[in-house]
Protein 1
Amino acid sequence: MTLIEALLDETDQQSVEVYENFMARGIRGLYSDNIIWLNQGLSYRDKACVLAEEMGHYYTSSGNTLDQKQTGNIKQEKRARNWAYEKLIPLQSFVEASKEGITNWYELADFMDVTEEFLEQAMDHYKEKYGLYVEWTSYLIYFEPLGVLELFDE
């Protein structure tokens, strides 16, 4: 199952409808009243990232957040994006990528099936949330420089 198929399954389970249409330049997706609109002109990976962000609005936002000059709307946008980062790039995916021998950003984005820009923004989110590293199960995941170390009991 592809990433988009998995996300669409989740939208179906939540009774959220998803449509694609060509949209004005600069608009990648919109969410309102259990409907997500995706710009049909996006690449596969861009669509997956935008769909996840719009799902983040479904799960975390309320009301009209289009006016990004209002502090409350900016916060809701950030919450939706953070939800998308953690949905598409969970901490365990760094461990899985390390086990596969992934060594650079391009390979990591490819492995996670996201755009490099989305991956970079997700890394910024994780650094903001945890600092330069986080202990996850029996691993230390370093965000800068990127790396994974397995921890062993003494």
Protein 2
Amino acid sequence: MKIRTFDCDGVIYMNKEVGGLRPEPNDVIITGRSYEERPETEKMLAARSINNAVYYNPLKFEEKTRASSGKHKANIIGQLQLEGYEILFHIDDDAIQADVIRQYCPDVPVVLVVHDFTEKENVRHVE
């Protein structure tokens, strides 16, 4: 199956006023958000009627970095490919994470969304 993968912050969620991009029903969300941030993430996605599969960063909130989040995303993309998915492209807004994904998944195009609506550093989300 051909799918696209989406980052959450800066792609699906830019901010409350702007909203964000919407994945198609079979697409997958790979977020740098920690598993600890699952409740607020699910609330935000539900408010936007987005019901796609979400892969959370396995690191605790305080432990994750932009680079480790990129590695997490690359790992999930690789896992999806091993499961038989063809990744058409990944959409991200963080150049550091995009570079990590390109390094580990050179066969997957990365679309970099450029804007200043979203903080790139590790912040808590109150949806």
Protein 3
Amino acid sequence: MRKFLFIGAFFCLCFSRAFALDTDTLMVQARSLVNQDKSRDAALLYEEALGKDSTSYEPSAFLGNYYFLLGKKALNEADAGYRAITQPNRMQMAHHQDQLKYIYHTYYEKAGLYLQKALRIQKNEHLKTLLDTILAFKQKIGLVPALDKK
């Protein structure tokens, strides 16, 4: 019986060490991709690393920033297209509103989840500012009521 416990403990120790190395390797590879301006590929590795260790700050912070910036880019494009219309009709206004909601659900909602996770692990004023910006956007497009400021 003792032999089985010892063997089981040995395998658990080896498995946990391999798990840690695997996560560390993913993080190193992701950082390397970021340095090569391959953010999309880095995001995939950070998501995988976060799947293995959900308490890691670096992937949560990176992914929060990454999805926020993708949302900001999509928002700038949508707003530029809408501003190009001199006198938008109701259909065009409704379409723009749908675009804003799509951008929120596709990018900002995901960014917000990662940012909240990162902030629970470690306080960071920049991440808090991004999260506040997402909340303000969500209020602006009518997904949550605006807070009354007295």
Protein 4
Amino acid sequence: MTFMDPVATLVDDFKIAGGLVVDRRAAPVKNSMHAYVPQTAVPFTVNPVAAHNVTGRDLDFLPEADRNTETVQFYARDGSFPGGVARGWKISDDGFDADVVHYNGRIFRVVQVRNFSVQGRVWCAIGQLMEPQVSG
């Protein structure tokens, strides 16, 4: 038994019914005018997945300026990600933009990822609420 096995069972015990929709984009590309153009988002469902508000030590690891934004932690197992999709959460590196998670009718951008897949088959992501786009 590894230290993350209890967390892996919690993903199943507290899973969100139906899972969560995640939008993933490849990194922006330069067009002929040398401007970066975002790629099309590819939606998929992560299931099973559990979520809770970030508190305590995990909140301390965020930059101080980001601590006033609603922040949620998402837990998923290796098998939670559908076939054909790179498993695990993505942040804005490795040729990807950050994953965008749709949770409780709101949109969260993944800002931090912890890969515990070897220790207990769990991927942990911290997502911050994205400000709604308001047209003036």
